[in-house]
């Protein structure tokens, strides 16, 4: 025992100083204090996994299904290790938030089952993120889901929402196994099963309820993972080292910034950045819209230093809100880019011809390149007169004369793109 060594040292000191007994040199409770301090120090978690084990509070579920799932997971050690490695970025935060709320740390095992600790996981019923929120439940907990981002995938925001939900379920059910079942299949489903058993005079504990098969296996899966995490060596599994300290920190930002540029400023890979910031749906993080990003702690000073010395644009995209029924072809011409580039940048299918007032991203590098070419061509061109035919549009004329809608409007000083058959306009004739 560690405190025995301290006791021996104190005993030697007492004898060397001429004390006839240890108690003559020291008060009796000194040794109890030393013992208490050393035991407390010895009880300090070795890492995040150890901290999780020390926080297990739920009663074990000793059922045949639990044993079956334990056998299954134990026979797939590589899968457990892979999930554990993926969890290493988020585990400390999840356990810290659980502990702060005085909840059982078994809750940190839920993402093992729900998403395999993949924050970008998406199920067939459109559940997303570490905690697999379906859209409707996410709305109830005020998780944003729009064109710019999906907070179901945000490791921090979704974790807080999931724990809010689990706390609510526990208060309603008064039992963690029932709360976990409710998290999986819905509170009303579990309540109906309980009511049915009560009516039949049957037990209302988790194992006695008639619930969907997935939910019937849900808690046994968590129980099986709990047993493995509690003693991984017994199952030949080496869990990755996860320190009992934060891996990431929230960093404030107030400017539009591309995801790629943010990763470069932090000097981390794009994959690493996306793993911590998977909620963004677009290549640009809008300044006023999202004022924070998550970065590994060891990269934060690097990020700020590189940001201060950065020259150039922090974003390579222009944001444009289209008019209702505006065509993608006319928008592309307006910005001097190809329609293909516009569609690819915004994942727009070829079948969709017009917009409905949607937000679009315009690649700035394409604008600069195309505008420069048009300007150079225009310098080396002359103007010719063109008579408008029935069925003509300015866009059609522009394409036939290798120019843009913008150029025709400017040359002819038009207020809009309406033209009349039989009238004449000037178009560039390139040399």
Architecture overview:
The chain folds into four domains: 2-42, no CATH class; 48-235, Orthogonal Bundle (Lysozyme), CATH 1.10.530.10; 248-315, no CATH class; 380-431, Roll (Membrane-bound Lytic Murein Transglycosylase D, Chain A), CATH 3.10.350.10. Helices cover 50% and strands 10% of the residues. It contains 21 helices and ten strands. The longest helix has 19 residues, at 155-173. One of its GO terms (molecular function) is peptidoglycan lytic transglycosylase activity.
Provide a compact summary of the structure:
By secondary structure, the protein is mainly alpha-helical. The protein has 21 helices and ten strands.
Descriptive keywords:
single chain, 431 residues, mainly alpha, Lysozyme, 4 domains, two-stranded antiparallel ribbon, two-stranded antiparallel sheet, 21 helices, 10 strands, 50% helix, 10% strand, elongated, disordered N terminus, EC 3.2.1.-, hydrolase activity, acting on glycosyl bonds
Outline the biggest β-sheet: 2 strands, antiparallel
What would the principal axes of the Cα set say about the shape?
A: elongated
The rounded Rg comes to 32 Å
**Helix share of residues?**
40-55%
Number of strands: 10
Mean pLDDT: 86
